[in-house]
Write a structure and sequence with these properties.
This protein is mainly β. It is about 0% helix and about 50% strand.
Length: about 725
């Protein structure tokens, strides 16, 4: 037995909690972005829904996620210097950074209201405003906050101070509140409008502007005593206003940018071909400006607002299915529709594990519901109007066959190179149809019909044993249907589930253990069914009301994932007895989830959503480097810790090298070898199970795990607690 002499090195590395699910498409995010702050011509930080904080240091070419430690929606951000910044959001959240966004700490705000705007007139003194007339103030750089009396119960949308004492905030009904004594008292000013005001900005102590609903733009030249309504020639709600200097300013609404070069006397409208709410506009100097919008759109100009480029990249179609035939190569299908282009196909391909995506086309022009690849080059997709497409060259070329407009196909699965199954519905027959091929898709024939059953998902565990799930619908009668084959799809035996069930997905880990998910329209409850006898009997494990579940995938006997509507990703580590909601960072409808190994998984959904995790969806301690491109050798702390019976170890290597990870007890005795092989550059994870193999009888106590790679060695401690 090998003996290890343990030496522990404490490294002073910057560390933040890395989110478990990352946006791969669209990038940098699909979440609404509400505010942006520019530190210099290259550096900007934007905040938005689901705790999103993004930072660029290269003028918007690349945006890096910065962990906010929250899933709350963030509405506003403000920096008092190049390092110190604040962000506010719902439930009274106030965050502070002192290292230019590399880490954020929550502050005690003494409020539970949605905070919509924050402003610091000086480094120590700051104000935040929000719902129910909330105004809070700090005089010690955010360490403590006190509530102030606004005299209003309406939401306050924006706050601006011209000095430590004089400030303004705006709300519903055209009301502008002003304080001249640092917020002790607030007085309502006469604005001359009843429109809701969303934004306020002052260019000096006397001259200010407010924007709001119905194209409203107001100006004062006497510190708010009088306000004049300006002519904007638009009825669009103006959500943000910003002035570069005393005469050049911008206001934004849905799909429009207004610009003035004469202190608001006239405004020129620049219509942008993007029908989204433009929440916030900011400039750095005369030339460089950004607008952040709904659905993660980020517009940038370097031409004084003449031209705006959208920095958001990727497709925004509804994505229905994906398949990775290997670690790096994956395919996603879906589509979009309109009155002019109904059921347009979408096919995406990645060859670098999701970092970049190429758009492919088969020419079918049909919505695609399911995709399956036998290897990196050969694959199939099916969809509306009986469309079946096949490629043998990685998607460069496709062969198209069509079963007819009245036969939408929902799922395709191949259990070897030649034998495949397709499930769908034939409206002319009013029956679910199971199609089968024995010649690699050259010919398809109807193997079986199932009257009144919409067939949704196929799954095989080997060449003979498989299942299909669907829903029987005939008039008001509805129930779930489970089909099983033991001869490769030649014969299918049908079993029904409870009334009201819609069954959307099925996954088995062996011949006995399997799960099905869906929705119960009778009691508005999600459906999670489990079997431990190959489908002879099923038990309902669902604890969630009104949650439509679309896909299920298990990585082993105990650990499984489900996705559904409202961006929900559920995790179980006890075979489905209990389910926990993971932080997916989206509220998009999610349609399919699958894992390549214990930690690496993907999920796709509406509005082009493609998300990936390399941590099993969990959060962990990471450096501020991009997790997809490691910059150094690094061994992370295992999680969970303490653990019982298993734990996950994450590590990063910046270049291809031989990797060894071993586990030792406190005496230095080798317990297990987890990794002992060549690895490419990247981030990886490995599971240590104290109940498997030769380590099944480990006792509670302290153990050590050590990474050796490329001349780098690091050891960390973990605790087994039974």
């Amino acid at each position: 037995m090998k003996v290890l002499v343990i030496s522990l090195l404490i490294l002073n590395l910057p560390a933040v909690a890395q989110i478990g699910w990352l946006w791969l498409n669209p990038v940098p995010t699909g979440n609404d972005l509400h505010d942006i702050y520019l530190l210099d011509s290259n550096t900007a930080i934007t905040v938005g829904d689901w705790g999103t904080i993004l930072k660029t240091t290269d003028a918007g070419i690349k945006w890096i996620y910065k962990e906010s430690t929250t899933t709350n929606h963030l509405a506003s951000i403000y920096f008092t210097d190049s390092s110190t910044g604040y962000a506010v959001g719902d439930s009274g959240l106030v965050l502070k950074t002192i290292n230019q966004c590399e880490s954020w700490l929550p502050l005690t705000s003494n409020s539970n209201r949605f905070l919509r705007s924050i402003y610091f007139p000086s480094s120590q003194i700051g104000f935040a405003v929000g719902d129910w007339g909330t105004i809070i103030k700090t005089t010690d750089a955010g360490e403590t906050w006190t509530n102030q009396v606004s005299g209003s119960n309406y939401s306050l949308y924006s706050v601006f101070f011209t000095n430590d004492s004089t400030g303004y905030t705006v709300r519903f009904g055209g009301v502008i509140l002003k304080t001249s004594n640092g917020g002790l008292n607030w007085t309502a000013l006469t604005s001359g409008t009843n429109s809701t005001l969303y934004s306020i900005f002052f260019t000096d102590e006397d001259t200010g502007y407010a924007s709001g609903g119905g194209g409203t733009l107001l100006k004062t030249t006497n510190a708010g005593q009088d306000w004049t309504e300006l002519n904007t020639n638009t009825n669009a709600s103006l959500h943000s206003i910003f002035f570069v200097n005393s005469i050049v300013g911008y206001a934004t609404g849905r799909g429009i940018v207004l610009k003035t070069t004469n202190a608001g006397t006239t405004w020129v409208i620049n219509s942008i071909a993007l029908n989204k709410i433009f929440y916030s506009v900011r400039f750095y100097g005369l030339n460089i400006g950004y607008i952040v919008c709904e659905d993660g759109n980020i517009l940038k100009t370097t031409t004084e607002g003449v031209n705006w480029n959208n920095l958001k990249r990727g497709v925004i179609d509804n994505l229905s299915s994906f398949h990775f035939p290997s670690t790096n190569v994956g395919y996603v299908v879906g589509g979009y529709g309109s009155s002019n282009e109904p059921n347009k196909e979408r096919i995406l391909k990645t060859s670098d594990a999701g970092i970049t995506w190429d758009t492919l086309s088969s020419g079918s022009k049909k919505y695609l519901s399911s995709v399956f690849f036998i290897d990196d080059l050969t694959g199939y997709a099916v969809g509306d109007s009986g469309i079946i497409i096949k490629t043998s060259d990685g998607g460069a070329n496709w062969n198209i066959s069509n079963l007819g407009d009245y036969t939408p196909l929902g799922s395709v699965y191949f259990h070897n190179n030649t034998n495949g199954i397709i499930a769908g519905f034939d409206y002319l027959l009013a029956s679910g149809v199971i199609l089968r091929t024995t010649d690699s898709g050259e010919n398809w024939f109807i193997q079986q019909t199932v009257p009144f059953v919409l067939l949704n998902k196929i799954f095989f565990i080997d060449q003979t044993l498989g299942w299909i799930v669907g829903t029987f619908i005939n008039g008001s009668e509805k129930y779930g249907v489970i089909l099983k084959t033991t001869d490769g799809g030649i014969n299918w035996v049908s079993r029904r589930t409870s009334d009201g069930h819609e069954l959307n997905s099925v996954h088995f880990i062996d011949s006995n253990f399997g799960w099905i998910v869906g929705y119960n329209f009778d009691n508005f409850n999600s459906v999670i069914l489990k079997t431990d006898d190959g489908g002879e009997t099923w038990t309902n494990q669902s604890p969630y009301l009104d949650l439509w579940l679309t896909s299920v995938h298990f990585v082993n006997n105990t650990k499984g994932y489900i996705c559904g509507n409202y961006g929900k990703v559920l995790l179980t580590t006890d075979s489905g007895d209990n389910w926990a909601v993971q932080i997916s960072r989206t509220d998009n409808h999610l349609t399919e989830i699958s894992f390549l190994d214990n930690q690496t998984g993907y999920v796709v959904g509406s509005e082009g959503a493609i998300l990936k995790t390399t941590t099993g969806g969990a959060t962990f301690i990471d450096t501020d480097n991009d997790p997809i491109q490691p910059q150094m050798y690094l061994l992370h702390q295992n999680y969970p810790n303490p653990f019982n019976p298993s734990t996950t170890i994450l590590y990063e290597i910046p270049e291809q090298s031989f990797v060894t990870i071993k586990v030792y007890d406190v005496l230095g005795n080798e317990i297990a070898t987890l990794i002992n092989e060549e690895k490419p550059a990247g981030s990886f994870e490995v599971e240590f199970d104290s109940h498997s193999g030769f380590v099944r009888n480990l006792v509670s106590g302290i153990y050590f795990y050590q990474l050796k790679s490329g001349g780098y060695t690091e050891t960390k401690k973990m605790i087994l607690l039974k």
